[in-house]
Design brief:
Helices cover 52% and strands 14% of the residues. The strands form two sheets. Strands 9, 10, 11, 12, 13, 14, 15, 16 and 17 form a nine-stranded antiparallel sheet that branches.
């Protein structure tokens, strides 16, 4: 116990110069109102009169009382003063004098503690903190909020988990109105670390006693209550010796009809023993954790001292070296971050190079992939084709129309490209700001930190502008030369032209033998329907046999209605399907449609529908409509003109409505306009896909070269050139520390000294 007590006293002494102790040390804080007899209890435990007395607040600053039992003549000493004091009346004078120094002479209060040590044979090994008495009404020149100031000071001590609360209450007053218990309950609602002291039990009304309180019936405490009898004011004025007062207390409890037979602990001697045992047990429990915290805090404090330095730079050489060191540290940390070596927490989301890779890999390609030839309306494609032809008819798609329209599509790539450049630039901006914040050495110099930030922003703006111009030129490069001889485009173009050439001639004229004959008694619609049925005999392979069907195209779905069973309609989704055609020996065509069909919730399988259309010209028209529906166009069935014997054709509903409203396309060229515009749209989409793939690959490479790598490579040279290191005044201003940094360094230095003393104390144990 002696060693534990000595160690704890030395730890308190080591942390006393600090306004707030960094470690929660075990201690006993004495709490009570001014009229509760708190000072008398403390003097009875010590055995001497040494506390200031008088009206109003006597204890105006925390007084740490350390009692040590040793084989010497009783004496006292203050930790900040030299010399022993054997006249305990002088102790009171020193307390008053030292309190006036820090709290003033007008009854003000202060949080700075005063350490008072007692050594002697009759002292218990104990440490107590005497706190100012709780009050509500200011006196003399005290501030109006004196009650709040004292309560906040008391709460600052007793709210620490390792603090044992000694709540002093007067027994001759209602315990429910006890300021000490009320304050203790605010931080210890279950009463686990509160020990109650009942004073003035000898002044209770005749016929009353504190038995219910001691038994815990009114306000239970785990550590219980101890009743004591203090000296009266007459005894204090007459300077009655403490030993006689303790004997008088013993006689009171022995002669009292209730207390003499009770098993409760009572009296000042028992209170001293109980406090010593409680404090000893608490110290034994908490000392390993305290030692661990002190060592850990010392390491952190030493790291802070390295960051703040012993002092700020003073000479021009030191200032110049400081600037160069800060720039070098910042650039090195930025390089580590760009290489993925940053220690920043990475579980909250992508940042830095990982975020840039996400932009290149997913976000930019998705934006580019969302663009297609549907940006161009059917009317725009038809007008461009007709204007390119002029007065002359053209069997194939005009080159000039193709180039004009494909350049409009390529222009659409500028927006996602510019967005990609800005996203990468913003991520670099975020990264270098995070790097600046992570540089502990740089945090000492606010002006230098701001200058580096501004220069980084300036360099990033230059590199972003250059990268944006380079990326724009890559898109313009695709427009400057439309390479229709691209290997991946030639095969597709030749296939489309071959199919167009085979279907073009029959579409222009029709032999007289195929002229429709109208029968009397029938409407024109019935004759057209009969002609369609004759020209478009279609069969489908359904149920393992070929059946005659009627075709109906609705949007992006093909419906097959068997003539033998009109209710057995088959539906084929055309969107995303694969269309293939095979010529038949009789001049007709066999069409194969491969499409995705759902199986349950997740699985999909590929199904196939086989069609045979006897008329080759009609089959070509159906194939064109199937392919357009497969590419996502809304296609409607358009009846042919009965006067020309034309077969069914298809076009988008939007284009059909625009054509009908504008009236700019005559019925004579209607079929060819729709057919060749559809071919031109297919060619545009195919070439645009090639350009999109090229752009998706080239833009990230360009930005890595012209923005990311260029910024990282030029960062250090730019900072060294932008800051005039030869100008002593400039570097002196950049390395000037703020008053906050100087204050913080002083605090860390004091804390480091206190922790070193604490480590030495623990080594002694």
């Amino acid at each position: 116990l002696d060693d534990l007590h000595a160690v704890m006293n030395k730890l308190h002494e080591a942390f006393a110069p600090l306004k707030i102790p960094p470690i929660d040390l075990p201690q006993i804080a004495v709490v009570g109102s001014q009229s509760s007899g708190k000072s008398s209890v403390l003097e009875s435990i010590v055995g001497y009169d040494f506390l200031p007395r008088g009206s109003g607040i006597c204890t105006r600053r925390p007084l740490i009382i350390q009692l040590t039992c040793c084989d010497v003549q009783d004496y006292a000493e203050f930790s900040h003063l030299e010399g022993r004091i054997t006249d305990f009346e002088k102790v009171r004078e020193v307390i008053d004098k030292e309190t006036d120094k820090v709290a003033g002479k007008q009854k003000g209060v202060s949080e700075v503690p005063l350490i008072l040590k007692f050594f002697g044979r009759n002292f218990p090994n104990l440490s107590l903190v005497d706190l100012p008495g709780l009050t509500m009404v200011p006196v003399a020149d005290q501030p109006a909020n004196i009650g709040q100031l004292i309560r906040e000071m008391v709460m600052g001590f007793i709210s620490r988990p390792n603090c044992i609360i000694l709540a002093v209450s007067a027994a001759n007053q209602d315990i429910a109105n006890s300021d000490a218990l009320h304050t203790a309950r605010m931080v210890d609602p279950d009463g686990l670390r509160t020990l109650g002291v009942l004073t003035k039990v000898d002044l209770m009304d005749e016929g009353t006693d504190a038995r219910d309180i001691l038994m815990g019936k009114m306000y239970p405490l785990r550590l219980g209550y101890i009743p004591v009898v203090n000296r009266s004011q007459k005894d204090i004025n007459d300077k009655k010796p403490m030993q006689e007062s303790l004997k008088a207390e013993q006689l009171f409890f022995e002669n009292h009809p209730v207390y003499r037979n009770s098993k409760f602990e009572k009296g000042i001697p028992m209170l001293s023993k109980r406090l010593s045992s409680v404090l000893e047990a608490h110290i034994r429990t908490q000392l390993p954790e305290i030692s661990k915290k002190i060592k850990s805090m010392l390491r952190e404090t030493q790291e802070d001292l390295v960051r703040y330095g012993v002092r700020g730079p003073s000479t021009p050489f030191e200032c110049r070296s400081t600037v160069m060191k800060a720039i070098q540290e910042f650039c090195e940390k930025f390089r580590e971050a760009m290489n993925g070596e940053s220690r920043r927490n990475t579980y909250k989301g992508l940042f830095g190079p990982a975020r840039i890779r996400e932009i290149f890999r997913n976000e930019f390609p998705q934006e580019v992939a969302s663009l297609d030839a549907s940006y161009l309306s059917d009317k725009e494609i038809q007008m461009a084709r007709r204007n390119a032809v002029g007065l002359h008819a053209d069997l194939f798609v005009p080159n000039s129309a193709f180039e004009t329209l494909i350049k409009r599509l390529i222009d659409m790539l500028h927006d996602p490209t510019s967005t990609c450049v800005q996203k990468v630039s913003d991520e670099i901006d975020t990264l270098f700001h995070q790097t600046i914040s992570d540089c502990k050495f740089l945090s000492r110099f606010a002006e230098l930190k701001q200058t580096i930030s501004l220069e980084c922003r300036s360099l990033l703006n230059v590199k972003t502008t250059a990268a944006a111009e380079f990326a724009r030129n890559l898109v313009e490069m695709e427009k400057s030369y439309v390479n229709t001889e691209h290997p991946n485009f030639i095969n597709y173009r030749d296939t489309v032209y071959k199919q167009t050439h085979m279907n073009a001639l029959p579409a222009q004229t029709q032999p007289p033998s195929q002229t429709t004959t109208y029968h009397s008694g029938r409407t024109e619609k019935e004759n057209v329907s009969q002609q369609q049925s004759a020209a478009e005999h279609c069969s489908a392979y359904i149920g393992r046999e070929w059946q005659d069907v009627e075709l109906k195209l609705d949007g992006q779905e093909l419906r097959l209605i068997p003539k033998s069973n009109p209710h057995g309609t088959q539906t084929v989704p055309l969107l995303g399907s694969n269309i293939s055609v095979r010529e038949l020996w009789d001049g007709g065509q066999q069409i194969s449609i491969r499409y995705q069909s759902s199986k349950g919730w997740v699985l999909h399988s590929t199904d196939e529908m086989q069609l045979k259309i006897s008329d080759g010209q009609s089959a070509s028209r159906w194939v064109m409509m199937f392919k357009r529906a497969a590419e996502g166009e809304e296609v409607v069935q358009v009846p042919r003109s009965p006067h020309r014997g034309a077969v069914t054709v298809g076009e988008s509903s939007t284009a059909l409505r625009e054509r009908r409203m504008a009236g700019s396309i005559g019925n004579c060229g209607e079929v060819r306009d729709v057919s060749e515009s559809g071919i031109l749209r297919q060619l545009l989409q195919q070439y645009f896909e090639l350009v999109k793939r090229s752009t998706t690959d080239s833009i990230p490479k360009a930005l890595m070269l012209k923005l990311v790598q260029s910024f990282e490579t030029n960062l250090y040279p730019h900072l060294m050139q932008a800051i005039d290191l030869d100008n002593d005044e400039v570097v002196a201003d950049l390395t000037k520390e703020s008053l906050e940094i100087v204050r913080r360094r002083q605090e860390v230095d004091r804390l480091e000294g206190a922790l070193r003393k604490a480590i030495l104390v623990l080594r002694e144990l």
